[in-house]
Specification:
Layout lengths: L8 E6 L4 E10 L1 H17 L5 E12 L1 H14 L5 E6 L2 H10 L6 E4 L20
């Protein structure tokens, strides 16, 4: 049951030779793993000096454990090259699973939710809520 509406759309934008962004729209589930790994592999091959990667999840409407595992896999792929991965989050579809699983603290988070304070409470988070 793999409908087009449920698929994740992956877009890659290279900002310069050291930074890039992967944008995600749709459902972040098992179907997202292959396109995400392919995008990361292509980035690493085409940008040997890549040191900062932003994964923008603001367009994600659903995320399950397979989607979270895909994000961890991207982070692990970049670790040997020292690539810093930052997740841009905005909706509870992404923030809640990350918080409940404990992965919220594994990633550098750029929290764009409007209801969170701008103050920094944790070293790896631009904004953070402690609920």
């Amino acid at each position: 049951m793999n409908e087009l509406d449920d698929a994740v759309e992956v877009t890659v934008t290279a900002h310069d030779e050291t930074s890039a962004e992967i944008g995600l729209t749709g459902e972040l589930s098992e179907d997202a793993r292959r396109p995400l790994v392919r995008a990361m592999t292509d980035l690493m091959l085409s940008a040997p000096k890549l040191s900062r990667l932003t994964v923008d999840t603001r367009g994600v409407t659903f995320m399950n454990s397979a989607g979270m595992a895909s994000l961890v896999q991207l982070q692990k792929m970049g670790q040997p090259r020292g690539i810093e991965l930052t997740l841009v989050v905005q909706s509870t579809a992404v923030t809640k699973p990350l918080q409940l699983s404990g992965l919220w603290h594994r990633f550098t988070i750029d929290d764009r939710r409007t209801d969170t304070p701008d103050t920094v409470h944790e070293a790896t988070h631009r904004r953070s809520d402690h609920t």
